[in-house]
UniProtKB/TrEMBL annotation:
Higher taxonomy: Eukaryota, Viridiplantae, Streptophyta, Embryophyta, Tracheophyta
Protein name, UniProt field: TLC domain-containing protein
Source organism of the structure: Rhododendron griersonianum
The keyword Transport belongs to this UniProt entry's keyword annotation: no
Entry's Gene Ontology cellular component terms: endoplasmic reticulum membrane
GO molecular function per UniProt: sphingosine N-acyltransferase activity
Topology with respect to the bilayer: Multi-pass membrane protein
Transmembrane segments: 39-61, 86-107
Length: 139
């Protein structure tokens, strides 16, 4: 378990990167639900920009670089011949899966951004929530 603790620093940085962009998402949601469309559009733009900087730039080029290459320097290969590499491969595999999810979610946000530009700044319905509001139209 000794080796797993060393990944806690990377986990804290990942948590901070994710929480920083989530603030704009929550402000945008509250603004959308309260009817403040211009504030919702502005918050969505800030969310997209923070997503690009934090999750598509810093995360892969700073965090994944550190966990993939720099962490090899801290693993004591003599003391932990088996569990060191296991932690390394499990954690990094999960972190790369998270990057794939970031890219998938970016595609969804990009579609929403294009719709917002076409609608001249008004946020359209969320592309992720197909089932929201379907109950209202049932007969």
């Amino acid at each position: 378990m000794h080796q797993a603790v060393r990944f806690a620093r990377a986990g804290s940085v990942i948590l901070a990167l994710h929480d920083a962009s989530d603030v704009f998402l929550e402000v945008g949601k509250m603004s959308k639900y309260s009817g403040a469309e211009s504030l919702a559009s502005f918050a969505f733009i800030l969310f997209v920009l923070s997503w690009i900087v934090l999750r598509l730039t810093y995360y892969p080029f700073w965090v994944l670089w550190s966990t993939s290459y720099e962490s090899l320097l801290t693993i004591d290969k003599e003391k932990h011949k088996v569990d060191g590499p296991i932690y390394y491969y499990v954690f990094n595999s999960l972190l790369y899966c998270l990057l794939v999810l970031h890219i998938y979610w970016w595609v969804l946000m990009y579609r929403m951004l294009v719709k917002q530009i076409q609608a001249r700044g008004q946020l359209s319905e969320d592309v992720r929530s197909d089932s929201e509001g379907e109950d209202e139209h049932e007969d």
